[in-house]
Amino acid sequence: MNSDINETDLAEALNAIIEAELSGVVRYTHYSLMITGPHRLPLVEFMKAQATESLLHAQEMGEILTGLGGHPSTKITSVKETFDHGIEPILRESLEHELQAISLYRNLLGLVEDKSVFLEEIARNYISTEEQHQLELQKMLRDFS
User: What is the pLDDT of residues 62-117, one digit of tens each?
Assistant: First the structure.
């Protein structure tokens, strides 16, 4: 690994991502169980796919972290339970979560840009993926504005 990368900052950034992605597993699984109404079926499938993807992202970041000699966190970021399980609040909370993920991946990119092609490409790919999710959620929310 490039000696210009601060290994402590990198480990902290990767652990922050792992914690956020693992909270996404809990968040999206919960949402998939709580959604009701006429749009339930496609939204449940969307939430389940998001939960699966969050787990994959956490695992991939953990593999990178351990490959660099780090130790993955067992924590998750807090998942606020609002007890408001209408479609609009769930979609708004999901959008907030995706925007936070983009911020975490942008932080990773800032740490590795021009220092590691591998890590830079990973960060860019994840930013792209999370931005796509954010756009989908914004589209879903249009009927509520």
Answer: 999 999 999 999 999 999 888 888 999 999 999 999 999 999 999 999 999 999 99
Return the SS3 of 3: coil
Buried b (16+ CB within 10 A) or exposed e, 39-64: eeeebbebbeebbebbbebbeebbeb
Structure tokens at 107: 């932080």
> Which CATH code of 3.30.565.10, 1.10.530.10, 1.20.1260.10, 1.25.40.80 fits the domain covering 7-76+84-144?
1.20.1260.10
- Burial class (CB within 10 angstroms; exposed 0-12, middle 13-18, buried 19+) of 94: buried
